Amino acid sequence: MKKQQAIEIPFLMALIPLVVMIAVMAVTIIKFEGSPHVPLLIGAAIAAAIGLRYGYKWDVIEEGAYKGIRMALPAIVIIILVGLIIGSWIGGGIVATMIYYGLKIITPSLFLVTICIICAIVTLAIGSSWSTMGTIGVAGMGIGVSMGIPAAMVAGAVISGAYFGDKMSPLSDTTNLAAGITGTDLFAHIKHMIYTTVPGLIIALIVYFILGRQFSGVAVDTGNISSILLALESNFIISPWLLLVPLAVVIMVAKKVPALPALAIGVLLGWLCHVFIQGGSVADAVNTLHDGFAITSGNDMVDNLFNRGGIDSMMYTVSLTIVAMIFGGIMEQAGMLQAIVKQILKAAKTAGSLIAATVFSAFFTNTTASEQYISILLPGRMYAKAFRDKKLHSKNLSRALEDGGTVTSPLVPWNTCGVFIFATLGVGAFAYAPYAVLNYTIPIISIVMAYLGLKVEFLTDEEIKALEEKEARLTEETGETEPSGSLLT
């Protein structure tokens, strides 16, 4: 990238793109019920204009937009694979089988607890909350709604379980990103997250148990369930052997097979099931991968649940991811996000307030840059030096990034995670947010523990010396220092 001198953008000027974007976003979504794409592009255009005004050349600003898109490419690949896997697993009868047996064995009073635990276990194994929500989550929505449980409650339980697993899995991209950007050992990072994440899950399960009790005294609509079971039996071949497909994906990833090829094999297995078990034509199976599955069963609930999937269904999410990263990339490239975070640092005088500021900044970045990767990367870069100045171990920073960034991303409707969930589960963020208990309790737990000094670990003199030696080696090798103070591995 071409370097040049530019004037540092003042805090109030840095706020202008965010304020305008949020205002336009509110009007567009609330009043016109439109998409967030155009507001983000308007914010990006204003950010670019301010960058030009303060001396950033156009090629540098343009490179920031492209860099943001490049950063999102792994997420875009996952989005496309999720569209493929939803289509192939629906066409292959795998989702129908999960719903069929789920309706037979899961009781309404324990359903929310059960689906949360199942999603947590699956995501721990595969490392992708999106993949879990796109498969187990879709099936869970069908089971829960058919039992008379509100869709928002079911979605909240699915999201809580999926993000617990995503946060704690060594295969998760956000977990590896938070550890890598802060120079923290991956398993030390995961172990340190136990103190905030496990209590969050326990609280969520207690809430779901209490919520579920209201359905224990309500007679299950057996007629509705029977009609769904009949529709499934009429349109799909139901067999427990089909459950081997998701089990195979879980086993592959547990055996250290990278997530992307494992999911790709899951798509292939689903496609083969569509052709050789469900009896679909090769043409139909291929078209399902792109266009999604189509069914007219005579049961509206079944039709609404199964008419989905395919690459085409994910293009809205892909386009929003690209647009969001253009906005975030320009804001970061021109130093505007950094200018905002620096103001927050002025109020962070103690270790507790610094950790709390990091959690808040990660959430703030989620709401403004609309992407959880930026919510980890930017505060991770900006706060690293401040953490070390206070002799705080880097795993405090990496945990705070995930406590404020990873888990809060679904709570923002225009964040790529919120948009993905809406496209996948069919429930908006404002509806499921009250029931995504884990996602808003973890940041609270993290901040309270920080101010109380609980599980806040400091660097030893030996560790400080080792970090200084590592920085010296990096400076000697690259000829540059890391201005944020982070030690990139």
Please describe what this structure looks like.
The protein has 489 residues and is mainly α. It has a domain of 241 residues. It contains 23 helices and no strands. The longest helix has 34 residues. The radius of gyration is 23 Å and the shape is globular. The protein starts with 10 loop residues before the first helix and ends in an 11-residue tail after the last helix. The C terminus is likely disordered.
Q: How would you sum up this structure in a few lines?
A:
The protein is mainly alpha-helical and 489 residues long. The protein is 75% helix and 0% strand.
Quick tags:
489 residues; disordered C terminus; single chain
Estimated share of beta-strand residues: under 5%
Report the span from N to C terminus. Answer: 21 Å
SSE pattern: HHHHHHHHHHHHHHHHHHHHHHH
Number of strands: 0
Radius of gyration from the alpha-carbon trace, in angstroms: 23 Å
Secondary structure elements and pairings:
Layout: H1 11-31, H2 37-53, H3 58-91, H4 94-105, H5 108-126, H6 129-146, H7 151-168, H8 173-182, H9 186-216, H10 222-235, H11 244-254, H12 259-276, H13 282-291, H14 300-306, H15 315-333, H16 336-345, H17 351-369, H18 372-389, H19 394-406, H20 416-425, H21 429-432, H22 437-452, H23 461-478
Helix pairs in contact: 1-2, 1-16, 2-15, 3-6, 3-12, 3-13, 3-15, 4-6, 4-10, 5-6, 5-7, 5-9, 6-7, 6-20, 7-9, 8-18, 8-19, 9-19, 9-22, 11-12, 15-20, 16-17, 16-18, 17-18, 17-19, 17-22, 18-19
